[in-house]
Amino acid sequence: MSTKLSIFLISVLLLVSGCASNHTRLLYNKKPAFYSYIFGDVQSKHIDAEHEADVYVAPASCQKTLTALLAYKTLGVDYRYETKLYVTKKNHKVHDVVVSFAGDPTLTMEDLERLLKPINGVAVTGKIFLDASLFKTPPHSPNLMIDDMGTDYGQPVSSINVDKNLIIVTAQPNKIGKPAFLANDSGYLIDSDVVTTLERSSIKLSLCNNRIKASGNINFNEVFLELKISPIDFDRYVLYKIKRVMKSAGVKGRLVIVRDQSQLPAKLVLLNTIKSEALGSIIPPALKKSDNLVFDSLYLKIVNSQITGGVKNWNEGDEVFKRLIHEYFNIEMENAMFVDGSGLSRYNRVQPRKLFAVLRQGYYISEFVKALPGPGEPNSTLAKRADLLRSIKAKTGAMSGISCLCGYSINKRPKTFVIVANSFAPPAKEIFPVLDGFVNGCLDR
Fold it and tell me: What kind of architecture, by CATH, is found in domain 82-141+233-275?
């Protein structure tokens, strides 16, 4: 081999490996952690750089990209959740009422008031059945860590979802040194040790025996603070919300939650249907904000559509997701695991290379790419990461000791990338500039 040719090949090799050498050292030097990543072209099979791309990692909220893609494929961009009102009649009067829920994560009390309009002011002589039979799974996945339950991001997920399944707690200051004023929108008693001070506001909420525990302080100059916590006893929460709707509508009757369709009355007459926005309008804000309730609800909806008799166990979704990924993208997920749609469970696992392969094909689903946030985009998980290249559209993922970023660089030669950092020490915010600088360096070549 000639000297000139050898020099040329070495130069090319150095150019191609620049990202995988110089920038890799930057990663480890700036924030010690285990890193795995892969960068490459969308339109070809060329890989620009990779490192440990075949290890299995917890994708955190990057899993939402898979759920979104499968939702677009299985349900369709125009899909709408439908919540329905049925009645039975006896002696020409309303006897039983059935509200059939569809697992709509966007359903509100105002929506239910619209649904009940045909029976406003009616005294129901039989029962008012809340039909929660669509999903037979427990509202809290057994794959969650116990610390996630009750948080504002770990809501229960059910056929019945109302007001994001969150309890809203408001706190107002009093005189300095005096107890603050606390209230909530879901009928819970509050045990509060929150006092009014001149220090920065800091209030911690928890639930114990269906009572809200509040501790901390609120700054005297605050007008009010709005805090969120999710219910543990989900039936109690649902019944309180529906009773308020019934009272507003003037409907009287005994409420019963039913999870077995065979327990519903026969000869039902459909009176009203309300529909959610189309999936094409639900997914983009949920993807930008990383809404766990929306994506876990979609997970159950997708899985339920593929299983005869309905989904009974959260883990049933694992095989369904693997089969659908193979069907739509011709990618085998082998030992991957998908036990929810949000990525909240640490039991989820996927190889960065396989996630990269799905995303590479997902680039051609325009609704999906448009739904991803860009750097610095308000009300998104990239709002504070404005230093990323402007060409990037990406989904973040984060949990204790894990930070992920996956998506695209959209230009004349579009790129796909996945990067995951594991086992790093807090604070988590220190990892963002390290990952962002690395991603920029790999893509801006």
Answer: 3-Layer(bba) Sandwich (3.50)
**Whole-number CA gyration radius for the chain:** 25
Cα–Cα separations (whole angstroms), residue 259 to 30, 158, 303: 52, 10, 18
- Per-domain residue ranges for the chain? 3-77+279-443, 82-141+233-275, 167-229
Which long-range contacts link 375-384 to residues 24+ away (Cβ below 8 Å)? 377/288, 379/285, 379/288, 379/289, 380/288, 380/289, 381/61, 381/288, 381/289, 381/290, 384/432
Per-residue pLDDT of the chain (445 residues; tens, 9 = 90+): 454 444 333 333 333 444 555 656 667 677 888 999 999 999 988 999 999 999 999 999 999 999 999 999 999 999 999 999 999 999 889 999 999 999 999 999 999 999 999 999 999 999 999 999 999 999 988 888 878 877 889 999 999 999 999 999 999 999 999 999 999 999 999 999 999 999 999 999 999 999 999 999 999 999 999 999 999 999 999 999 999 999 999 999 999 999 999 999 999 999 999 999 999 999 999 999 999 999 999 999 999 999 988 899 999 999 999 999 999 999 999 899 999 999 999 999 999 999 999 999 999 999 999 999 999 999 999 999 999 999 999 999 999 999 999 999 999 999 999 999 998 988 888 999 999 999 999 998 7
CATH topology for the 3-77+279-443 domain: Beta-lactamase (3.40.710)
Read off the pTM.
0.92
